[in-house]
Amino acid sequence: MADDRRELDGAVENHTSRNIKRAKDSIDGVDLISSLPDAILQHIFSQIPTKYAIRTSALSKRWRHVWSETPSLDIDCYRDEPDPIYETLSRSYSSPKIATFRLSISTEANQIDRFIDFAVSRDTEELSLEFRHSYAQAYRFPEVFFTSRSLKNLSVESATIDTIPGHVTVSWRSLRTLCLRGCDLSDEACVKILSGSPLLECLTLFVDKLELLDLSECLVLKRLDVQCWEQTLKIVAPRVSFLSLTHSDESRCVLLDVSSLIEANVNIYCSRRLGFLCDDFGDPETGLADSLQVLILEVLEKLRNVEKLTLCGTFCLQILSLAVLCGVPFPMFKVEALTLETAIYPSIVPGVAKLIQNSPRLKKIKFETDDCKMLEETRLTNYLYWKGLETRQCWKPKELDGASLSEPGLMSSVMKFLVKTSGDEWYKDGSYTFSLNKNSELSFVTDLTREYFFR
Fold first, then answer.
1. Distance (Å, whole) CA 233 – CA 253
2. Contact between residue 270 and residue 315 where contact means Cβ atoms under 8 Å apart
3. pLDDT in tens, 412-443
4. Which run of H or E residues covers position 132?
5. Are 275 and 374 in contact (CB under 8 A)?
6. What is the DSSP letter of 428?
7. What angle do CA 45, 46, 48 make, to 5 degrees?
8. Which of 40, 86, 199, 366 would suit a FRET pair with 193, their CA atoms being 20 to 30 Å apart?
9. What is the DSSP letter of 171?
10. Structural contact between residues 260 and 238, judged by C-beta atoms closer than 8 angstroms
11. How confident is the model at residue 415, as a pLDDT?
């Protein structure tokens, strides 16, 4: 037995020594990285800033031109001078086609047009442009930008697209995904862009100035993500099946036609302005609390036929609770899966209860709990007091008393969970999912992220 052990140890030692010697020979004789095919090296270069890829050309003759056919370029000219990088690209880059071109640059730089012209001339498929200092100097695109037939994905941050010259026709014939974040976009420019993008499938707009978004002629557009700030935006999107809508109490989105929606994500959040006006929130003379109820319920009315609905933020559910207690009419929903991203406080209970009651097809409700911006509950109860309503135990709906909570089912299980949890400051943050299977059997699944336990 001992002889066998010594023989095994010797074999392992010899094998290890051979591996070490082989590795040493490789290191001494051949540069392992340099021996990789160009395609692999260029894939690696695609994952790092282009300025570092360019520097490898100084290593040896083997490396001199490897970077020049890298399919993806990532150029950050915010801290670096753009002129040397552009000169190197125009002189040495040899690939006829660019898969991905990312550019971060100040709007005060004088090479922006040349970088964009370079990207368009190389048939770039995915273009990402981030502009800095746009507040100091607006940047307007050259005509060539609107004529790229190779673009499939376009992302622009902090630019001004308020005018497109009348003689310029947008020709983004291959564009599938368009994302405009922090941009000034006029109605006229938006119409031109949409008419020139017949294959557009996914549209993200975090914009200012836009007043009407008419997607009637967008035949294949299915996903729409909109965030507006201080303006009123009217939306016509008869073919969109997924909508993500974000705005504050200072802005308004009017959904004129969203008749094909299957899934919606709504985040109406509490602005800084509302924080400053907390003392006036419940004052009947300001009408602020009343107008917020109308604002949120108008949106939900247009979403009554969706199958999946996500409501983000404690603030939204608090306003819905006020609407319930004030007797404001609620729409009936066809939703089957409801997700609520919220902190759990007593002031959300009536709103959640009403959502469940008015969703007879509901089979799944999920709580994603986290710290969310909310209104102080004392402000809410002051509003109810000014409305002449009972404020004691106001957050526990009458229908939750007595036998109803002892009856098995989705509604009673969720309400038991909320009543218990909302009175406990030390619940776990995470997700809590209640669902019914085909046999109407109830299941409860948790995915917790904090080590806090129910009392």
1. 5
2. yes
3. 888 888 877 776 555 567 888 888 887 777 88
4. strand 126-132
5. no
6. P
7. 65
8. 86
9. -
10. yes
11. 82
How far is residue 144 from each of residues 79, 168, 313, 452, measured CA to CA in Å? 26, 9, 42, 57
β-pair type (364-369, 337-342): parallel
For residue 395, what are its two tokens?
Answer: 């957050």
Count of other CB atoms within 10 angstroms of residue 328: 14
Using CA atoms in the order 102, 108, 109, 115, what is the torsion angle rounded to 10 degrees?
A: 40
Quote the CA–CA distance of 321 and 327 in Å, as a whole number.
Answer: 10
- HSE-CB for 157 with a 13 A CA cutoff: 11
Let me know how long the chain is.
455
Q: SS3 of 33, please? A: coil
Q: Which pLDDT belongs to residue 15?
A: 41
Gap between the terminal Cα atoms of the chain: 60
C-alpha span between 180 and 200 (Å, rounded) = 14
Other Cβ atoms closer than 10 A to 404: 14
Beta bridge mates, 232:
252
Contact yes or no for 216/238 (Cβ under 8 A):
yes
Distances in Å between the Cα of 282 and the Cα atoms of 277, 278, 322, 384, 438 are 10, 8, 11, 8, 45
What's the CA gap between 440 and 344, in Å, rounded? 26
**Cβ within 8 Å of residue 433, ≥6 positions away:** 364, 365, 366, 367, 444, 445, 446, 447
Residue pair 415/351 in contact by the 8 Å Cβ criterion = no
Strand pairing category for 263-269 and 308-312: parallel
Q: Give, for 42, the enclosing helix (H) or strand (E).
A: helix 38-45
Look-up of token digits 């003392």: 279
Task: Tell me how crowded residue 410 is: count the other CB atoms within 10 A of its CB.
Answer: 18
In this structure, what DSSP letter does residue 63 have? G
Q: Is the pLDDT at 277 greater than 60, yes or no?
A: no
